[in-house]
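REQUEST FORM: STRUCTURE PREDICTION
Request ID: SP-0412
Submitted by: Lab K.M.
Chain count: 1
Length (residues): 393
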Amino acid sequence: MGLAAASMLFACKTQKNPQATIEKPVLAQLDLVNVENDKVWVTVDPAEFKTESTIFNIPKTVPGTYSEDNYGKFTESFKAIDYKGNELSFEKLDDNSYKIEKAANLDKVMYLVNDSFDWEEEGGVYSMAGTNILKDRNFLLNLHGFVGYFDGMTEKKYQLEIVRPEDLVAGTSLTIASTKNSETGNSKTDVYHLDRYFEVIDNPIMYSKPDTTSFMVENMQVLLSVYSPNEKHSAQTLKPGMEKMIRAQKEFLGDINSTDKYAILVYLSEGEGDASNYGALEHHTSTVVVMPESMDASSLDKSMTDIVSHEFFHIITPLGIHSNEVHYFDYNDPSGQLRVKQPEGSLQPATALARRFFGNRRSAEVDCVLLNVLEPCSGKGEHFLYLIGMLGT
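STATUS: Completed
RESULT:
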């Protein structure tokens, strides 16, 4: 056989490559069915460890608030379980962290979570960054208050499974990958796939009886989910104001499209004994709004327009334009985190864009508000983003 023929046979021979190992995601499960004294069980399964020890953390702080809220103080009955179902020893380092020895034997951790709305003064946590557990009625899941992480594993994929009553539905910008029925038929399990831990805590979910609506603004779907315990307000009554405001803001942003789905989750508080500080917390593709249910329809609509217009613009800055310190956020060492009051490189282009949109009509407001990162200016009763939201009027 000639050299050319031999070479041809070798070249045509099927090459066997070792199959790449598929890395298992961290599995986090919340049980919203078997609620114990207004607390829910959370289980986090990290797949496997090859280290002698590991540390499990609940966030001390999260992007958007940048305050030391110590969400671990809402947890109790922490357990580290091995593959045989036995409890492993651990050391509680502080409110938020647990050191577990013999990590190679660790199968999962389990713990109970209380909601912040029930604590005195809500545990010092802003309501819009807080949590609510109201069995069979409402679960406000700012997930940084429920799901923790292991050291060195924040960039791993997560699979989030939420066991919930069958008649409650999820309000979220996340896509439900699948829903599984229980054997008893009184619950379902929603499964979500997330690329890293940040996506877990950046995507709040509100489970409640169905009161939702949606609308399209260009190529973006906007979801509106409302919990009004006494049914004083609804998604349908809030929809016209939200749709007008979002359309005006999308017109302002032009071709900037950072998401194809945006969720507005509205929790309306009954007042005493319920959430008591009002406002909203921004996320990349959603916002959580907490307001008093007692407001009349006109006042609520005006406040929602003002507040949500502010939060919606945060999909651009600082959330969409940020440094490595924000992208690789350290949830348990806030000493190195800076509140992004003036994100470098974002204010001047935003000012130019605003001036192009408004011409010279409101340059003073544009400069004043943008240089204060979209907060109301001292001595001025108006808010630049509120003006944008009012363009449709």
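NOTES: The chain has eight helices and 21 strands.
Reviewed by: T.R.
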